[in-house]
Amino acid sequence: MSVWKKTDADETQPQSQSHKQSQSAPPSQPRRGAEAQRSRNVATIGPSIAIRGDVTGEEDLLIEGRIEGKVLLQKNHVTVGKNGRVKADVFARSVAVEGEVEGDLMGQEEVTVRPSGKVRGNIQAPSVTLDSGCRFQGSIDMEKGRQQQGKEAKPAEVKPKVQAPSQEQTTLKPAAGTSP
Amino acid sequence: MEERNTTQPSDYSSFVLEGLLEGLRRPPKKVVLDLGPASGENVDQLAAYTGNNYKLFIANFFEQLSEAGPSARRNPPTFASTCERLLNFPAGTRFDLIFAWDLFNYLTLLEVEALVGYLGRHSHGGTHLMALVSIYKMMPDRPFQFMIRSPDTLRYETLSRALRDSPRYTENQLVKRMSGFRVEKAMLLRNGMQEYSFVLDESEGAAESKGG
């Protein structure tokens, strides 16, 4: 199976933004890593949890378990922790990967693959950081992510790589009193 | 590279890199292929050069080939299909610049031919390919990792201490196997590498659309 998505290879739209990725100011939260996530009010999919289907919601998410399907948290941060194994496309405001992902990562702000991270898929985000030691195979398209930032990502355009047999959907909703 | 077996990274002045990067500055959006392992430095430098107006494919081809096992390299027809299977770029993808780095040292000439044949189908007239060929007798048993430090400086870091024989390919040997590509620049470096910038002739490339 090809890691490259059959999309937009011939896109030629010029754009004028110029900035060095390492100099861009990233949102602070995804840079803090899984440990920091745990100390915050974030939903956690623990190491013993396995989900097949779509994950949607409106709060930040730390994945230490397994997900096959799709992760749709476009207004929030998603961290795939060191124990996390994700076989899904992930749509989020920002994504940080410390574990393993097989699927595409769409970040409206940024995507970071940390030293322990392993990604096989395509990344679209205005800012992409590959930390030294990480393993990545796929394509990186920063312009696309920037375009999505302005018009909201459209996850419906992307077919999930893994078909959830039961079409079950897991929705994450903020618990009372935990909303920012 | 000085037949060394250390894991200390080293920098060297590249004679072809700056020209290749300059070619990325101009619109339209550029498509770049890195056949080596992922490097954050390369992502950053390419982003800076293109003003983010590029799409980068990272193939980590040698690693993929190693994981595919010896059967993937058994004979040229198999290797051609191996390239197709492991790389399998989206239809319509046309690279403007390909970083092969020192990958050719780890392929037979028939494998180079098959790989470049596949890449040619995702290239266009004027596509550049950068390669480094070892001229020393011995070399690390797996490719170096190359990182762009500045427009004219590359850092290379060995990922293995073990050594193996170097094929020491000559320019003629390579060009014969690189259909449509010609040498644009070649420079013998003091670190034991011959640095090449190949370019695909204007009449070549994009054979995929013709069913090639």
Features:
heterodimer; A: 180 residues; mainly beta; 6-stranded parallel barrel; 12 strands; globular; B: 212 residues; alpha/beta; 6-stranded mixed sheet; 3-stranded antiparallel sheet; 6 helices; disordered N terminus; disordered C terminus
Q: Per the principal axes of the C-alpha atoms, what is the gross shape of chain A?
A: globular
Q: Summarize model confidence as the mean pLDDT of chain A.
A: 74
Distance from N terminus to C terminus of chain B (CA atoms, Å) equals 37 Å
Q: What ranges of chain A have pLDDT less than 50 throughout 5 or more consecutive residues?
A: 7-31, 144-167, 174-180
The sequence of SSEs of chain B as H and E is EHEHEHHEHEEEEEHEE
For the CA atoms, what is the radius of gyration of chain A?
A: 15 Å
Radius of gyration of chain B: 16 Å
Helix content of chain A: 10-25%
Main β-sheet, spatial strand arrangement of chain B: 3-2-4-5-11-10
Shape of chain B: globular
Biggest sheet architecture of chain B = 6 strands, mixed
Number of strands of chain B: 11
Number of helices of chain B: 6
Strand content of chain B: 25-35%
DSSP strand tally of chain A: 12
**Poorly predicted sequence stretches spanning 5 or more consecutive residues of chain B:** 1-5, 208-212
Secondary-structure-derived class of chain A:
mainly beta
* Fraction in beta strands of chain A: 35-45%
Overview of the structural elements:
- The complex is a heterodimer of chains A (180) and B (212).
- With 180 residues, chain A is mainly beta.
- Chain A has three helices and twelve strands.
- Chain A has a six-stranded parallel β-barrel.
- Chain A is globular.
- Mean pLDDT of chain A is 74; it is low at 7-31, 144-167 and 174-180.
- Helices cover 28% and strands 31% of the residues of chain B.
- Chain B has helices at 17-25, 40-50, 61-68, 76-87, 109-120, 171-177, and strands spanning 10-13, 30-34, 54-58, 95-101, 123-134, 138-140, 145-150, 153-157, 163-165, 181-188, 193-200.
- Chain B has a six-stranded mixed beta sheet, covered by helices on one side. A three-stranded antiparallel beta sheet of chain B has the order 1-8-7. In chain B, strands 6-9 form a two-stranded antiparallel sheet.
- In chain B, helix 4 (76-87) packs across helix 5 and helix 5 (109-120) crosses helix 6 (171-177).
